[in-house]
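debug: dumping io for the single-chain case to check the tokenizer round-trip. Nothing else runs in this session.
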Amino acid sequence: MVDVVHEPLQIDFRGAEGGHGPSTWGQRHIWAAVLDNRGDPARFTMRRSWSVPGGRTVVDVVAALRALVERHETLRSRIDIDRGIPVQVVGESGTLACSVTDSAAPWSREAALRSASELPVSVYGPGGEPPVRFGVLTFEGGPQWITVAISHLLVDADGCGMLEAELHALLSGSGTPPHATYQPRQRARFEQSVDGRAHNARALRYWRTTLEQHPEWLFPPRTDGIDSWRGERFPVLHAYAPGLGRHVEQVADRLRVSTPALCLAAFGKAFSARSAAAAYPLGVTFSNRVLPWSRGYVGTLAQQGAIGVRDVHVPLGQLARRMWQSLLLGHRFSQYEQDDVFDLISQAYDGQRDGYGPVANFVNFQYRPALTGTPPSAEDPAGRALVFTELSPQEDSSVRFGLHISSDRSDLVLRMSLDQACVHVDTMRDVLDGAAGELWSVNA
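debug: decoded output
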């Protein structure tokens, strides 16, 4: 049977207030990445599919979405560019279109995610529309899934999780979520205040100290522009590690460290084994969600921080404890004015910034309720070998490599994008295998 696409529904909203305001550090952090990656919307759109509790109608779903939009300025915002600088524009009232697609067969999670990937949305919302799109997937008229596409300039992964939780509460009748007390424009005002500027200064001192104490480049900088060759230069590795998620949780619990710290320690060993660097900075994506004010904040807070890596030849447990301390310290200084960090790196390396200079790499660890991109069945589900899947290469990349570690606390998915002008794909395949081997080598 062919899916039936109905006329879009209208989500009419009226928020508490609207207006203009400066962008936040988190928004300008993403904006810099947008510019470095030529505005590719595929990389800078958060796409999700949220399940709908049974017994609800499409009218119920639209009412819940309207409540979310009115509650959070993020969902009523677009980003305008004023003399090269992004600014927030919040609509007090307006209308968002919501597509409705009915199917004669139940929608799977995979099908819902594919549908979310097809929602058209821009990166920053030119033309007056917020870069926010919703869709409803119905089975014989009853809503099963809500598909979502929101610009990464407006929201990060944790913000998407908060929206999903609030929507589920609205639809399940478990209570109305509390009013959002901290909005992005308020955050921007703090960042420009005396206290905000003082925090930025402390963050810059931390970055400078980290770079001075860890002066080496993990992999060499690119010697040519990203336009020199394309396609196979920017491969993407995807590895599935069945059972490794459960194992690292048990090991981390026994060692009394965080699971991300344990994984980073294993990758620190694997990176160092394939590089001549002995003391280098490593980029890490920090959620910036540890302080009380961030609870319930729906916006973009995540930024790239930096930690120093050295002396990796100690036992993995000992390195994981050091790595955890480094992560806790790095988290204190992972909110900053993006251009100031770029200027600092440029000054430290004679104007050759090459993205983040020696920190033009990042590791991102996320827990997910369900992993995507896992094969239907592993060749050796009882074994410990990574199951690699070939993905299409990226067109270009502003970093030398990026590592995404996803866990559902049972399995791990490792996704590595890289620039072969800096490091060969076979080297990074060895890194993935080596890190997985390090993690399996420790008894739970």
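debug: round-trip ok. The mean pLDDT is 89.
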